[in-house]
Amino acid sequence: xxxxxxxxxxxxxxxxxxxxxPFWYTSGKIGVYFINAExxxxxxxxxxxxxxxxxxxxxxxxxxxxxxxxxVLSQYNSNNIYKFVIDNLVETISKNIDIxxxxxxxxxxxxxxxxxxxxxxxxxxxxxxxxxxxxxxxNNSDFSKTxxxxxxxxxxxxHISDLITEAASYVNLWIPSIExxxxxxxxxxxxxxxxxxxxxxxxxxxxxxxPLVKVDKxxxxxxxxxxxxxxxxxxxxxxxxxxxxxxxxxxxxKHPEFIKESLKATGKTLIRARKCVEEDIYGLGDLxxxxxx
Length: 293
What we know:
The protein is of the alpha/beta class. It has two domains: 2-35 and 219-287, no CATH class; 58-214, 3-Layer(aba) Sandwich (Rossmann fold). The protein is 46% helix and 18% strand.
């Protein structure tokens, strides 16, 4: 587990902000960390290359799964970080689930495929590739055969994902896709559970969640002990996890120059800073009222 935590920070799969420079989120809020579980593919650069290749292959659903599998298998055999993560994921599954009860393994478009294809291969289970249009393609475990799915009646499915936040993709896409074919997602194994209600939501659908990592205070305490983050970063994260909005509001009151500098930026930073100011997301009133002018 400790090596896994180190890998999360080495690859920036979890990227903690500097104590005086929080991240801008799409919502117009600021926060103290970003999570990109797919970076555990080995690095940000390698994961982005894989996702680009997936995007280029998406036009042909039939040939895509094998193309993805060939790339992740090569990475598994050559990258120690990715192999370590996948081996831990397979071990977690094997310890908690009777493998004989798993009929299929599934993964959803598109970051799930970073992890699901190789797990299906290692567990010798057929793989269901689910697309956002709810269509699905079936492959055998080594992806040498591809076929349409006529029915999954009475079959149990283990879904592999990169990340669980509020489980919206599960509820809106992955669960309906499998259930439309008569199957049932009975379990899910995920790399990161953000601890934002997703596992509880899935439990209402009778799905048991097995995460490799939970984003809680103990995670960051271990990261501090392993010197992956500084004491200042840890204290800010700890406060943020207690009360995110109040922590960030206090930060902006103490550092009004942060918004001023962000409004001089370009691209996403500028757009998000403007949204924060114009909507007065943190209720700062006169302190920031003239900043966007």
